[in-house]
Amino acid sequence: MGLFTAYHKKTDETLMVLIQNGDHRAFQNLYDRYATRLNGFFFKMLWSDAEMAEDFVQDLFTKVIDRPELFKIEYKVKPWLFQIAANMCKNAYRKNSFERAYRQHLESEGIHLAHIETKLDHSIQFDLLSKAMNNLEEDNRSIFLLRYQQEMTIEELSETFDIPTGTVKSRLFNLRKQLLTAIEDQKITNHE
Amino acid sequence: MNNDQLLKIDHLIQTKHYEELSQEDKLLVDEHLGGKKSFEQYQILFKETHATQERPVSRLVANNLSTRFKQKNRPVWYSLFNYRIPAYASITLIALIMTASWWWTTSHPNMIEVTKEVYLPGKTDTLLVQLPPDTIVIEKVIQKTIPVYITSNVPSEKTQESTEGSSLAEQQDLTEFLVSGR
Asked: Most CB atoms within 10 A, among A115, A149, A155, A166?
């Protein structure tokens, strides 16, 4: 009986092709597979701001709905989605650095916007890992999270960031070391 | 450290305790990570990172996206009737379509003409005619093809009438001929 298609058995790539053809259930399935993972990624990338992370998940899937033709048949869905996510985070960092610069400018002028500062400060979880991670560059943070949070393979990372696998591995090695050192330093500072 | 060693150490950190490592693996870990303490610190780091892999998304987001997807992928006729054509035009169009479909689906009589020879028994009429003496009577046989109309669903009453009409005319001709004697 071919009345009901087992969507959960279909690959991500097949689902994307169905989405391009306007299949609502295929979209629902792809969303169920990736929404929580993308939310976890955005949460860690965007200063542990839960509200912002959800907004970004919605924005990302809105892009998928509005421009499904951006997905090409030769792509893999997982690296493609996380590549979009990483690019969105880059834009958010850019915007954030602009906001910080603007706030500093206002403060230098003697204008103090308490609500902006409170929002930014409270959005950061002050656990050691988050602190250490917040000090990483945006690309490095993405690579680290995609590897150790989202369990992406080296090949998928290479595809996502468009860099050779050797570069991914060496960056990961350095990142781990950097993070561990940062955490140790924070521990020492806290004790003092 | 080469690439394979990096992957192997990653795998060991994620799957084993330091005490469970083989001698060879311990040497590898000690050489590159600096011993048990670092190994365990990496374990905590990876575990903490992995713990945040998934975060539930509120149902509202899913609903918004679902609605958006359905709206975007509505059939062409839906958007045509609801957004692109004024209501009165849509109604007129629907009425026209319904009339046309009724017209095409209802069966109409289809009349065709087929020539066919049919056997008819001879018909004899008796006429009383007063003729002058020494009149020569010539027998005239009139043959006529009678048209038969076949229709799909209308009874062919007309055919009978026309046959009768023809017959009367023939009789009148014959009477005239016989009376005049020419």
From this structure: A149
The reply to whether B166 and B134 lie within a common domain is yes
Domains of chain A by residue range = 7-124, 125-192
Nearest to A40 among B7, B10, B52 (CB): B52
The residue of chain A with its CA nearest to that of B38 is A180
B46 touches chain A (CB under 8 A): yes
User: Selecting from 3.40.50.1980, 3.40.605.10, 1.10.10.10, 3.30.565.10, what CATH number does the domain A125-192 have?
Assistant: 1.10.10.10
Surface-to-core class of residue B1, CB atoms within 10 Å of its CB (0-12 exposed, 13-18 middle, 19+ buried): middle
Using a CB-CB distance cutoff of 8 angstroms, which residues of chain A are in contact with residue B54?
Answer: 36-37, 39-40
Interface A-B: count of C-beta contacts within 8 A: 88
Task: Determine which of B40, B49, B71, B79 to mutate to test the interface with A (most A C-beta atoms within 10 Å).
Answer: B49
Residue B4 near chain A (CB below 8 Å): no
State whether residue B50 sits within 8 Å of chain A by CB: yes
Q: What distance in Å separates residue A104's CA from the closest CA in chain B?
A: 32
Model pTM? 0.66
Q: What is the pLDDT of residues B133-155, one digit of tens each?
A: 887 877 777 666 666 666 666 55
Cα distances from B55 to residues A48, A51, A148, B50, B52, in angstroms, run: 11, 12, 15, 11, 7
Q: Is B128 exposed, middle or buried (0-12, 13-18, 19+ CB in 10 A)?
A: exposed
Given B52, B62, B68, which is nearest A44 (Cβ)? Answer: B52
Say whether domain A7-124 belongs to CATH 1.10.1740.10: yes
B150 beta partners? B112
Nearest to B159 by CA among B125, B107, B120: B120
Q: A47 exposed, middle or buried (CB, 10 Å; 0-12, 13-18, 19+)? A: buried
Tally of CB atoms within 10 A around B88: 8
CA dist., res. A9 & res. A21, Å (int): 18
The total number of structural domains that make up chain B: 3
Report the candidate in A146, A173, A160 with the shortest Cα–Cα distance to residue A45.
Answer: A146
